[in-house]
């Protein structure tokens, strides 16, 4: 079948500038495999250039030779994974191929339908992300007012996961197979724009986004801070997409209002749709994530190990996941059980949070510091030293735990209004720097986090 490629290449020789043909098309080897045109480039540089710049021309030439437009895979002789030109590898009609090829040429290199890495099913929902999850689901169902979604969180808390889940879900819905999805990061957008400026193809670059995209998924838009030229182009593209009723998902590590050096018009576009913020997971969600990930790995994680991980890696799910994977891998390599010792060894390689403080730790600290037992703290006694000890416990519990005032009060046999008064009394003494206040400050600072 390689003579097919020779015919396509001959056609390209006639259509392209001689230099372009010699440089980019001549080194390619091509053949038809299962209805797809598979092109091998000698290296990644050539492959990327051909995929980015010549895909349309190749598609057209192939269409003329074959009387239908085939799917194209771009492979690299020394490279790893194939890069599919189409998001949908089912029905291959000329229209579908042409439509799909435009945005995907500018998408992340490996985003074919099969390569969405994350789904809704493997996203663990907790209080920290339930709104973002619901909004992402709503976006897929085209709920009224869900044309644009802005997902925001600190790094490693699931923005990419949800964005990819949206892409996977929409690409999966049979009635949306024709939809042209463009998924890329702010940085990729910028580098493609720079390349198009260098090759004087900015108009084509803009046109691809304006007319070739039904759903734009743009990650890490905080990248645009301070990049004026990029912001102009993005603003125009967003305006055009929004005017045409096209849908947009964006992610950012910062809220629109926290971004600096961004054109106000662009900021206002960022804030135009639904803004969903994800927080750090609470301990129950962290445990659920550990359990879900170990289920996928088909490994049993002992409860004490799960509790240790959930306690010491609290603010970044990516780190939590990576630590868990390393523990599982090490246990497999050493052919040993997953134990606390093994977990501790792996944990040393991570940036750990301090052990969290729960109410029982607060109680035992206060009892030790003041020389009372819990029953004396819970008693009705209004003796000054007991009141101070109790108030210190209220204050520390409020500071270090996520418990409500009512929960704290319950443990000490007190109403939540008493807890408020106790905390205020401690704060007042400390602020006034009285002798008692200084003593309280010292005691409070001894509670090691
Ligand atoms: N709620 C969750 N349930 C299951 N896995 C999650 C959840 N949140 C995050 N993860 C996992 O944590 C890892 C990091 O998540 P993700 O890449 O989506 O974070 P991000 O917010 O996009 O980070 P960054 O800002 O650094 O790009 C991924 O492997 C993802 O699957």
UniProtKB/TrEMBL annotation:
GO terms for molecular function: ATP binding; DNA replication origin binding; lipid binding. PROSITE patterns: DNAA (PS01008). One of its GO terms (biological process) is DNA replication initiation. ATP binds at residues 156, 158-160. Keywords: ATP-binding, Cytoplasm, DNA replication, DNA-binding, Lipid-binding, Nucleotide-binding. Residues 1-93 are annotated as: Domain I, interacts with DnaA modulators. Residues 332-449 are annotated as: Domain IV, binds dsDNA. Its main location: cytoplasm. GO terms for cellular component: cytoplasm; plasma membrane. Belongs to the DnaA family. Oligomerizes as a right-handed, spiral filament on DNA at oriC. PANTHER family: CHROMOSOMAL REPLICATION INITIATOR PROTEIN DNAA. Plays an essential role in the initiation and regulation of chromosomal replication. ATP-DnaA binds to the origin of replication (oriC) to initiate formation of the DNA replication initiation complex once per cell cycle. Binds the DnaA box (a 9 base pair repeat at the origin) and separates the double-stranded (ds)DNA. Forms a right-handed helical filament on oriC DNA; dsDNA binds to the exterior of the filament while single-stranded (ss)DNA is stabiized in the filament's interior. This is Chromosomal replication initiator protein DnaA. It comes from Desulfomicrobium orale DSM 12838. The gene is dnaA.
């Amino acid at each position: 079948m390689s003579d097919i490629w020779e015919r396509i290449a001959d056609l390209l020789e006639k259509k392209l500038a001689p230099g372009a043909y010699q440089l980019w098309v001549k080194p390619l080897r091509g053949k038809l495999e299962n209805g797809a045109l598979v092109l091998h480039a000698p290296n990644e540089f050539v492959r990327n250039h051909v995929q980015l710049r010549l895909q349309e021309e190749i598609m057209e030439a192939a269409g003329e030779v074959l009387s239908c437009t085939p799917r194209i895979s771009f492979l690299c002789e020394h490279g790893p994974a194939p890069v599919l030109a189409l998001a949908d590898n089912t029905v291959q009609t000329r229209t579908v191929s042409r439509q799909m090829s435009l945005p995907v040429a500018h998408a992340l290199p490996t985003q074919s339908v099969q390569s969405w890495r994350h789904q809704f099913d493997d996203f663990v929902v907790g209080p920290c992300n339930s709104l973002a999850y619901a909004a992402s689901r709503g976006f897929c169902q085209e709920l009224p007012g869900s044309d644009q979604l802005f997902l925001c969180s600190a790094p490693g808390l699931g923005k990419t996961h949800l964005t990819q889940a949206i892409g996977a879900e929409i690409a999966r819905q049979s009635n949306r197979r024709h939809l042209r999805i463009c998924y890329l990061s702010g940085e990729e957008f910028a580098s493609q724009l720079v390349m198009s400026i260098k090759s004087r193809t900015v108009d084509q670059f803009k046109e691809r986004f304006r007319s070739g995209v039904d759903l734009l998924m743009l990650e890490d838009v905080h990248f645009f801070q301070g990049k004026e030229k990029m912001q102009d182009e993005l603003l125009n593209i967003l305006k055009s997409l929004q005017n045409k009723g096209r849908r947009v998902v964006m992610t950012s590590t910062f809220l629109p209002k926290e971004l600096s050096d961004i054109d106000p018009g662009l900021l206002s576009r960022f804030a135009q749709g639904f803004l969903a913020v994800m927080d750090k997971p609470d301990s129950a969600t962290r445990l659920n994530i550990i359990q879900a990930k170990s289920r996928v790995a088909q490994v049993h994680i002992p409860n004490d190990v799960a509790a240790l991980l959930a306690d010491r890696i609290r603010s970044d799910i990516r780190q939590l996941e990576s630590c868990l994977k390393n523990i599982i891998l090490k246990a497999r390599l050493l052919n040993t059980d997953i134990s606390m010792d093994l977990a501790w060894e792996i944990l040393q390689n991570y940036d750990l949070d301090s052990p969290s403080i729960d109410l029982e730790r607060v109680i035992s600290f206060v009892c030790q510091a003041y020389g009372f037992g819990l029953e004396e703290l819970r008693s009705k006694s209004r003796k000054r030293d007991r009141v101070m000890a109790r108030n210190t416990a209220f204050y520390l519990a409020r500071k270090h735990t996520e418990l409500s005032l009512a929960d704290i009060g319950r443990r000490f046999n007190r109403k939540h209004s008493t807890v408020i008064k106790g905390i205020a009394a401690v704060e007042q003494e400390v602020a006034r720097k009285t002798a008692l206040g200084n003593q309280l400050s010292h005691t409070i600072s001894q509670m090691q986090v």
